[in-house]
């Protein structure tokens, strides 16, 4: 990895109750591959969404995630990896337990940019909420739509 192209790699950010760490910034290499580590509380879920630019790869480090990919439901456990192919709607939910950690691998900088724009630096400590925190990931895609992903449905119940 070339040092001047790895700017901001390792930056930890709070998105609601999710701790997001950019492990590899999209600008680090010629293929614009981004790797973001997501530490999420139990019962967190992403909205049903579609990646339009490439596949989304989710590798589960710890915990159990229930996935829906193109209408198919299945569980993924620590050490397993799921590929959500480009153009197919997908979502996941952290199953009961202590929460979960996964790596999200995407091509292009849209996901990483969205994370950076919608999050608070972890160095500021955990954000204090005066109201009930939204379900982890619920408002993750509420920002402006991009040409590379679209929200097409609600999170998994």
Top keywords for this entry?
single chain; 157 residues; mainly beta; seven-stranded antiparallel β-sheet; 1 helix; 12 strands; disordered N terminus
Explained architecture:
With 157 residues, the protein is mainly β. The chain has one domain (3-122): Jelly Rolls, CATH 2.60.120. Helix content is 6%, strand content 42%. It has one helix and twelve strands; from the N terminus they run ββββββββββαββ. A seven-stranded antiparallel β-sheet has the order 8-5-10-3-2-1-11, covered by helices on one side. A three-stranded antiparallel β-sheet has the order 7-6-9, with no helix packed on it. The protein has a two-stranded antiparallel ribbon with strand order 4-12. A hairpin with a 2-residue loop joins strand 6 (64-69) and strand 7. The longest helix has 9 residues, at 110-118. Residues 1-5 and 129-143 have low confidence and may be disordered.
Describe how the helices and strands are arranged:
Blueprint: E1 12-15, E2 18-24, E3 33-40, E4 48-51, E5 56-62, E6 64-69, E7 72-77, E8 81-84, E9 90-94, E10 100-107, H1 110-118, E11 120-121, E12 149-153
Antiparallel strand pairs: 1-2, 1-11, 2-3, 3-10, 4-12, 5-8, 5-10, 6-7, 6-9
